[in-house]
């Protein structure tokens, strides 16, 4: 493949870029771009794509085994981030004179550890960006089970029907993905995962050596990426179009080979940064709280705070990932 550890450099680069949109969206809101939340759809669709590829390799696993293996890989980082965010949330409330409802905090902590926040019955938790993980775990479990039931016969049809039906249901209620009523976050996630499965099935069935893939494919990819950036920065493209832009971008990124011509050292750096996006997701709410507090206390310029935020986020994400990796090996 394209890197020493068998990862596609172009996908790792997109993972990093779209995660930067998410972490700065939560830190600065609409100060820099109008619809930073759209980047989440890229991750849902990419996760569906990778879920289907995993299924083709390990379809002997039950939905429980697949889900357990997935959680086991990232749980140490997730749990550490949850403890830190809960502690900071308690500290913030105590500092501002709010009463602490201990049973509520304990219950909320349990829902976050159990990956059931924002899936219908339970609200978001202290580490609010991790609603994505809860939806990914529950939605991934459901779709893996459906793939096993279908037994390889109608995967593309199931994915297409699910994504079409759920997106239709979502956008009947409003024009934005940012809907938090009851099961809407879970439906949003399953729709994106389903579209990712369709994308992976199309990718598997498409001849990767077609003549247009070298030049025209790269132009398509660049054009789609530009459209995604325009939508996020300007907010002028309706949300409903974004899943299809993202699925095409992912499809061309896996099919095109331009990233194979990148210098090997640059590939390794891209892969390292791309692989720390999980840490950026789970730690950025805590780091954003600390940086916002620092900015208020010291009145330092916004751009300096942004640099501190980004550097701290990368440092913590890479450090925790390396420590976790060493601990698992031992």
Keyword list:
disordered N terminus, mainly alpha, 330 residues
Structural features, described:
The chain has 330 residues and is mainly alpha-helical. It is 73% helix and 0% strand. α1 packs across α10 and α1 packs parallel to α11.
SSE map:
Elements: H1 9-28, H2 39-58, H3 63-95, H4 102-113, H5 131-150, H6 155-173, H7 184-205, H8 216-234, H9 242-255, H10 264-275, H11 277-298, H12 302-329
Helix pairs in contact: 1-2, 1-10, 1-11, 2-5, 2-7, 2-9, 3-5, 3-11, 5-7, 6-7, 7-9, 8-9, 11-12
What's a quick, concise take on this entry?
The protein has about 325 residues and is an all-alpha fold. The chain has helices spanning about 10-30, 40-60, 65-95, 100-115, 130-150, 155-175, 185-205, 215-235, 240-255, 265-275, 275-300, 300-330. The chain starts with 8 loop residues before the first helix and ends with a helix.
The count of strands amounts to 0
What is the CA-atom radius of gyration, in angstroms?
A: 20 Å
Number of helices: 12
Percent range of helical residues: over 70%
Shape category? globular
Largest sheet, if any? none
| H/E topology pattern | HHHHHHHHHHHH
Cα(first) to Cα(last) distance is 28 Å
In quaternary terms, these chains amount to single chain
Strand-residue proportion:
under 5%
């Amino acid at each position: 493949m394209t890197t020493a550890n068998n990862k596609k450099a172009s996908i790792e680069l997109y993972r990093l870029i779209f995660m930067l949109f998410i972490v700065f969206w939560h830190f600065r809101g609409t100060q820099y771009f109008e619809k930073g939340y759209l980047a989440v759809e890229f991750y849902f669709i990419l996760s569906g794509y990778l879920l289907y590829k995993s299924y083709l390799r390990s379809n002997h696993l039950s939905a429980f085994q697949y889900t357990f293996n997935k959680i086991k890989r990232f749980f140490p980082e997730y749990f550490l981030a949850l403890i830190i965010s809960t502690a900071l949330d308690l500290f913030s409330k105590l500092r501002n004179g709010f009463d602490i409802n201990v049973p509520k905090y304990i219950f909320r902590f349990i829902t976050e550890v159990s990956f059931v926040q924002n899936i219908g019955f339970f609200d978001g938790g202290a580490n609010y960006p991790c609603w994505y993980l809860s939806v990914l775990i529950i939605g991934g479990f459901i779709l893996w089970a459906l793939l096993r039931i279908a037994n390889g016969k109608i995967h593309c049809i199931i994915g297409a029907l699910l994504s079409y039906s759920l997106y239709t249901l979502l956008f009947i209620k409003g024009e934005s993905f940012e809907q938090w009523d009851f099961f809407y976050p879970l439906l949003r996630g399953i729709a994106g995962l389903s579209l990712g499965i369709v994308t992976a099935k199309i990718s598997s069935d498409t001849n990767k050596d077609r003549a247009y893939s070298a030049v025209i494919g790269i132009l398509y990819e660049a054009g789609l990426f530009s459209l995604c950036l325009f939508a996020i920065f300007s907010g002028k493209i309706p949300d409903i179009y974004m899943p299809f832009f993202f699925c095409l971008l992912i499809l061309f990124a896996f099919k095109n080979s331009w990233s194979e011509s990148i210098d090997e050292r640059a590939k390794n750096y891209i892969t390292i940064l791309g692989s720390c996006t999980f840490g950026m997701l789970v730690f950025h709410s805590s780091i954003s709280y600390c940086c916002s507090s620092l900015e208020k206390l010291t009145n330092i310029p916004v751009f300096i705070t942004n640099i501190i935020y980004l550097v701290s986020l990368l440092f913590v994400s890479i450090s925790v990932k390396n420590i976790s990796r060493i601990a698992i090996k031992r």
